[in-house]
Amino acid sequence: MSSIKASLGVPYAKIYEVDELVGAVAGKTYTCPANRRWLFLTGRIERDTSATLVVNLKNASDHVYMGLTYETAGTTNLEVPNLPDQKQNYGGKAALLTPGDYINIEWGAAQTNPRVTLRFLEIAY
Length: 125
Hints:
Layout: E1 3-4, E2 13-21, E3 27-31, E4 36-45, E5 51-58, E6 64-74, E7 78-80, H1 84-87, E8 96-97, E9 102-107, E10 115-124
């Protein structure tokens, strides 16, 4: 991945992308590492077994601070965010993760090997 020069008052900012087949799971988390901030940009999550899908941003204390997706049972690929109040600039709120915050993905039934793709602007400080 290439770094993007940005006037953010930080040493660097780059696009960070997760693109993986996650295996047989019913849940998956992606945690913002120390000395970084992630600005969530977009994502796509697969359901290869019919299930509900809930995607939330949680803080290090496991409290939900922003919902990104709630979808009823199905097997479609979903864009994240997909909640109506989150589509336009995330409802007016920045989807910013600080160290220890995480994206929590929960499928309502175990999946066989779904693909998860997430994109962030990663900022070092």
